[in-house]
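step=encode ok
step=design start
structure_in=
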C-alpha cells in the first residue's frame, strides 16, 4: 500500500524535475536567441527611460520595407546592366516621367544609361534593378514605386487603345 509520505515524496520529485526543466529550457532559449541575434548593442542605462512614440501604419510599413531592403545584400556577380540603346527608336523617346517616381533628373539619368522606352523598363529583371539601384534612383525606389509594373501598363497602352 502507498502511504501518504510516498505520495508527497513523489509529488515533490515531479515538481522539482518540472522546475528544473523550465529553468533549463528557458536558459537554452535565451542562449539560442543570443547566438542568432548577432552582436548586441550596449544596453541602455537604467536611468534612461525610453517611451515608444506611436507611429502610423504607413510609417511602420515603410520602416519594415527599409529593414528588408537593408537586410538584402546583393553580390556584385548577381548584378547586370540592363540592355540599352544607342539612342531612342525613330528619334523619339517615350516620356518616362509618366511613371510615378521618375522626374526630369531621373529621366535624364535613365537616358544617359541608354534607356528611352517603356518596353525597356518593362523588360527589366531583378538583376537589372539591383544594378540600377543607387546609379539612377535612390536605393529601393524602383521596386517600392513599381516602375516595372507601371512601364508594362504604359508600354501596352497603345495596344489596349487599338483593341478597345
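sequence_out=
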Amino acid at each position: 500500500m502507498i502511504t501518504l509520505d510516498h505520495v508527497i515524496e513523489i509529488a515533490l520529485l515531479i515538481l522539482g524535475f518540472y522546475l528544473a526543466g523550465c529553468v533549463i529550457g528557458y536558459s537554452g532559449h535565451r542562449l539560442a536567441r543570443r547566438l542568432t541575434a548577432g552582436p548586441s548593442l550596449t544596453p541602455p542605462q537604467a536611468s534612461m527611460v525610453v517611451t515608444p512614440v506611436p507611429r502610423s501604419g504607413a510609417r511602420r510599413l515603410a520602416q519594415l520595407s527599409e529593414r528588408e531592403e537593408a537586410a538584402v545584400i546583393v553580390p556584385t556577380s548577381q548584378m547586370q546592366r540592363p540592355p540599352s540603346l544607342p539612342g531612342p527608336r525613330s528619334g523619339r523617346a517615350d516620356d518616362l516621367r509618366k511613371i510615378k517616381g521618375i522626374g526630369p533628373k531621373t529621366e535624364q539619368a535613365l537616358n544617359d544609361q541608354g534607356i528611352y522606352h517603356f518596353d525597356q523598363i518593362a523588360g527589366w529583371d531583378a538583376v537589372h534593378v539591383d544594378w540600377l539601384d543607387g546609379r539612377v534612383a535612390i536605393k529601393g525606389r524602383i521596386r517600392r514605386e513599381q516602375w516595372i509594373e507601371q512601364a508594362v501598363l504604359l508600354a501596352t497602352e497603345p495596344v489596349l487603345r487599338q483593341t478597345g
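step=design ok
step=annotate ok -> The radius of gyration is 29 Å.
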